[in-house]
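Researcher: Re-running this chain for the archive, since the previous output was lost when a drive failed. Same request as before.
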Amino acid sequence: MSDNPSPGPAPDILELAALLCSRVCHDLISPVGAIVNGLEVLDDNPKPDDREFALDLIRKSAKTASARLQFCRLAFGAAGSAGAQIDLGDAENMARGHIEDNKTKISWNLPRALMPKNKVKLLLNMMIIAQQTIPRGGVLTVDTVGEGEAIGFRVAAAGLNARMPQNIAELLRAGNSGSVDAHAVQPYYTRLLAQSCALNVVLAPEGDAMVVTASGS
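Model: Regenerated structure tokens:
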């Protein structure tokens, strides 16, 4: 996708649902494909070393697929009935399972509390955006902004060669009419979540870090 999305109509409800489904499928293709590859190795009656390699691949890929499914269910799915609240502790566990690896770590500075589901969904989507600014890994620091019903979030991404994906910043901006495809739907959806929470979400550099902030200001 180009850095400057061409103008186009916003997706309707059906198209938005289809684009989000495409995004989820994209996240799951890699680990599920690895499981299939491991099973094919086992079907070929491999040597003991090859068999152990295949089983290890299946174990790791199944764990990855499960973590991504749980995260996507919370970040993109219904996650309970209308008006439901979600435990931030559960959100932290989902985020760590999906995002943390040997390159990327999370510093979670949020209290364990119940929050409206759309605010929790907003936070998880902000973390996805922040992660994209540090392709070589780093640390995501998660804090709250404001207080009471107007509470929002701040996710700072610090890492080697942190970059500012201009297309994402534009898609987050209220009133932006850039076209939305499967690659752009996640930041667009993040903007919709922020609007539903009466918050404004912004991606901007702060020193050497890239910061995603959702606040009422």
